[in-house]
Amino acid sequence: MQAEIGRAKLTPAHSIPSRGHMMCDFTLPSIKGKPISLFDYRGRANLVVFFAGDPDHTEGQRLLSSLAEHYAEIRDQDSEVLLVLACSRERAGWVKAQSQLPFPVVVDENAQVHKEVGAFRGQAGFAPALYVMDRFMEVHAAWHTGFGGTLPGVPDVLSWLAYLDSVCPECTQVEWPNEE
Q1: Which domain holds residue 52?
Q2: Distance in angstroms (rounded) separating the CA atoms of residues 154 and 158
Q3: 115: closest CA among 13, 10, 16?
Q4: pLDDT tens column, 40-92
Q5: Residue (of 79, 88, 76) closest to 30 by Cα position
Q6: Rounded to 5 degrees, what are φ and ψ at 139?
Q7: In this predicted model, what pLDDT tens digit does every residue of 155-168 receive, in sequence order?
Q8: Is residue 123 part of a domain?
Q9: Which neighbouring-strand residues pair with 53?
Q10: Which CATH number does the domain housing residue 83 bear?
């Protein structure tokens, strides 16, 4: 695991993932019922994971639309967006179709993962959160609205993805020494 050989630390139990820590793996169903694990992307793509909570919540709608608009730019940086909604699969499928979202959508029906990452504040309800992670699941940027913060704009997200591409030694061709 990258945390064991790199500089990232494992996120302590009952703690919200933060910069420099590994995001805990989770597996949730897609809108078509296929299980998708966060670690399915490990080693393949940097990730922008948006825990939007309730799809009727308006706080994250602008960011969601902007991520969809700039999805080609995100993909050009060898990155993926994963939207996590706390609703039924049917409702999440409707949201994906209505908003014409080009990226994967998974469903956290009981909001358990939302709670684990700080996107659910008990009686206060859902508090959207966004994480930018490298391809080894280390968190490099995190925004939580439940702690008085605001969600970033897409330029901030793109800036973090560009940074990850510039510092990732695993993302370039490895040069093996000659055996001469």
Answers
A1: 29-164
A2: 6
A3: 16
A4: 999 999 999 999 988 776 678 889 999 999 999 999 999 999 999 999 999 99
A5: 88
A6: -75, 125
A7: 999 999 999 988 86
A8: yes
A9: 85
A10: 3.40.30.10
Note the pLDDT of residue 84.
96
DSSP string, the chain: -HHHHSS-EEPPTT----TTEEPPP-EEEBTTS-EEEGGGGTTT-EEEEEEEESTT-STTHHHHHHHHHTHHHHHHTTEEEEEEESS-HHHHHHHHHHHT--S-EEE-TT-HHHHHTT-B-GGG-B--EEEEE-TT-BEEEEEEGGGT--PPPHHHHHHHHHHHHHH-GGGS---PPP--
- Structural domains of the chain, count: 1
> Within a domain: residue 131?
yes
Rounded Cα–Cα distance for residues 61 and 53 (Å): 11
Examine residue 63 and state whether it is found in any structural domain, yes or no: yes
Q: 133 - beta bridge partners?
A: 47, 139
- In this structure, is residue 18 part of a structural domain? no
105-151 pLDDT per residue, tens:
999 999 999 999 988 877 778 889 999 999 999 999 999 888 778 99
Q: What is the pLDDT of residues 11-48, one digit of tens each?
A: 666 678 889 999 989 999 999 999 999 989 999 999 99
